[in-house]
Amino acid sequence: MESPQKLKKLRIVIIVLAALLAVSLAALAVTVIRASAHGDSATVSIPGNITSGSAHAETAAYRTSTTLGGSRTQSAVSLSASGQARRVTLSLYRNHSTDNTPFNVVNMLPGDAVTQNYNVRVSHSGDVTVRFRAIIRPRYEKLAEVLKLRVELLNTGEILYDGLMRDMPRSVNHKLTASGSTTSDLEYELTAYLDTSVGNDYQNQELVADFHWWVEGKEQSHLDSPKTGDDSHIVIFTVAAAAALIVLVILPVWRRREAHRHG
User: Fold this and answer.
1) According to the model, what pLDDT value does residue 237 have?
2) Quick check: 244 and 19 in contact, CB under 8 A?
3) Residue 126: which residues within 8 A CB-CB, separation 6 or more?
4) For residues 185 and 196, is the Cβ–Cβ distance under 8 A?
5) Which of 73, 125, 154, 259 has its CA 20 to 30 A from that of 244?
């Protein structure tokens, strides 16, 4: 028969292991939830001259500045709950070789411009060509006759296109190179604008388009699964929980065997 002192030590060990198991499971749950959390997609709309798109943001606002030859410019700015400016974020990765977001402007005046920044995150393990094109939706051809689009890649300062949106080529391209698995962020600044020479016939007109980014053909095989961050904490908490659970299961069995042997 086991001595009271030995039983007391065994109870302490069991209590400690149970506490370790509970803490590890709780920490593991929190880590997994945080790792899998994503911002909700929403379409932002701004009265007057507007841009809108699928953005990881809660609210939207706009700011006015003077660019493009002194014309008044309204830039759509996605805001987080804290009021910090955020970009529209899109992703290209394995089994997700294309991404898109809607865009619309309405009631533009001659000389007006709207600007939106887009972050395109590409997970790849080889060379890929990222392609972009604006596709105007049917029934919005009137404003498309005069609306221009400037596509600037902020990473390099290169103007990929500057002309009528409806006359864009099949795609404007940027090549990414890689010798191993990596994640590349491309920063696009898209400005839709009207020349000051545009007549008043185009007032109160609306345009809706879709901005598309994609990787095509054999290069799709060079896309990687997206990195989800540091998984080391998940591994640690999983191992700790598993070890505590195993010991908690083994201890009663070992205790019964010892009691039977000395009984």
Assistant:
1) 64
2) no
3) 178, 219, 221, 222
4) no
5) 259
